Amino acid sequence: MSGNKDSASDPCNSGDSYKDVNNVTRTVCNLTAELDNKSRTVHGTSTNFSGELRWYTSSR
Hints:
- Residues 1-20 are annotated as: Disordered.
- This protein is mostly helical.
- The chain has one domain (11-54).
- It has helices at residues 28-43, 49-58; strands at residues 17-19, 25-27.
- Strands 1-2 form a two-stranded antiparallel sheet.
- Helix 1 packs across helix 2.
- The radius of gyration is 12 Å and the shape is flat.
């Protein structure tokens, strides 16, 4: 796996995951990327992660 991220701080390498409402196992890395994209699209910033996380988990 290559990339310019610091692997120590990259959630893709943390192994953390969760199951969504459809019982699909998803990684924290994917969730972070989705929320980051949504946050940039909706708010024009990626600083609303915690609020987006609450919205994401409660609306699925």
